[in-house]
Amino acid sequence: MAKTGKRRVLYRQGTGFWRMTAKWAVFFGVLSLVDGGLLRSWGHAVVWPMIGILLWGPFGVGAVWYPRKDQRVELTARELRVRRKRLPMEKVNLLHVAQLWLDGRSTADARPVPAWTRTERVVWVPLRDGRAFGVEFRDPAAFAGVFGAFAVEACGGPDIVRARVAAETCPDPRPLPPRRSADEAGSWLDVLDVFN
Q: Distance (Å, rounded) from C-alpha 87 to C-alpha 47?
């Protein structure tokens, strides 16, 4: 948990751009050292960093990072921010999230959250209008734990949540279909995501 100014950040996930770039540099750096130090001369080893730089754009950025650019997520007490989209907490059905969390579950899977493996998956955020907003996470169990605990606290605690659930009905949310506007698809603003 971190604080940005007066805003308390409960959970943050980046796009993984710098992690991908570091792995790319280490991989071609090791190839260069092995080629120059063990196999051939250092003159031949210089070729590997140049190949890495040439392949980094189309494969590193285009094939590895770009499909994951929507994974930049920030959860605060006021909103859930996915990339440049902001979802105010007033639109989120926190009672449904709290109910599932008290049962040890989340909207991503019917299995208990502790049984999840650390793999990329979509967690559905239920909205008050009966729909659900899908967010992809690299560690969904960590987000589910933070979001569930926040929802229980925001609803007044476990006892109040159970009392409200007994009195109200929480229908299963309907997932929103993926939809992107024409100016959003392939926008040049995607490049700015690497700095967040």
A: 47
SS3 33: helix
**Strands, E, within the chain: which ranges?**
2-4, 7-13, 73-76, 79-82, 85-88, 121-126, 131-137, 174-175
Mean pLDDT (10-residue bins), the chain, 196 residues: 63 81 87 82 81 82 72 88 87 90 75 76 85 84 90 92 83 62 45 43
Angle, helices 94-102 vs 140-154, to 10°: value is 110
User: For the whole model, what pTM was predicted?
Assistant: 0.66
Long-range contact set of residues 132-138: C-beta below 8 Å, sequence gap at least 24: 132/107, 132/173, 132/174, 132/175, 132/176, 133/82, 133/87, 133/176, 134/175, 134/176, 134/178, 135/73, 135/80, 135/82, 136/68, 136/70, 136/71, 137/13, 137/71, 137/73, 138/13, 138/16, 138/71
- Positive or negative torsion for Cα 111, 115, 120, 122: positive
* Amino acid 131: pLDDT: 85
Q: Tell me, what DSSP letter sits at residue 144?
A: H
127 within 8 A of 92, measured Cβ to Cβ? yes
Angle, nearest 10°, between helix axes 17-34 and 47-55? 150
